[in-house]
């Protein structure tokens, strides 16, 4: 018995040494990527945070943060930014989920062809696409002309230089970011599971609700996070299609720097936006249990 116990302890020690050596090798292989991540991500965030604590004279101050929470202008900009981001995300879900579901059920060749059309917008500059929407949505644009020709409206609608135009342009730009993770998630779902549910007596709608939809949730959440976070920092599209009437946070930061030359206040806006975004993702994690969702 003593010999067996000694052998077991020896095996455990050997396994522990192998585990530590594996961790050291993994850390060594990951060191270049970790260093690049620190240079590209963490150092700029640290620099931005340090700027937010300085006034124009270079002295430490908390006035930049106090101004954000005391000024109705800044608070209103935050509200508008999050409202637009939520609206764009919801519209992308409503458009992207059915499209991804339809593409996932196509034969591989046709699905690949459809994916090409989804990726085509990436080959064109965001600025070019935004100006294209500005031409389409103006009072004498193709959209208003078509609506009037069909008798749906009597006079041109105000679709550009307002909130509506900004959301339309942003949805067009963000939709591929919703479709790509959704399609990848849906394409990996075994259709035999859905057919088995139907074979056991479930209606197609119930099979979709109880089998297909829960399995596609990781792709849906990935698309929602991508679209929402990217929408928070949009600048070009709301600046052009909003016509100055729509002020998102990126525009407020730009005007704070270019007009008022206040780097501290602009940095504080960026830090607060980053903190609010991380807090929102954390709340989603706590409420919906994202670790369990991705462990399915």
Q: How would you describe this structure to a colleague?
A:
There is one protein chain. With 296 residues, the chain is mainly alpha-helical. It folds into two domains: 1-51; 71-293, MetI-like (MetI-like fold). It is 78% helix and 0% strand. The protein contains 13 helices and no strands. The longest helix is centred in the first third of the chain and has 50 residues, at 2-51.
Main attributes of the structure:
296 residues, mainly alpha, MetI-like fold, 13 helices
How many strands? 0
Overall morphology: flat
What pattern of helices and strands is seen along the backbone?
HHHHHHHHHHHHH
CATH architecture of the largest domain: Orthogonal Bundle
The count of helical stretches stands at 13
CATH homology-level superfamily of the largest domain: MetI-like
Strand residue percentage: under 5%
Q: Kindly report how far apart the N and C termini lie.
A: 43 Å
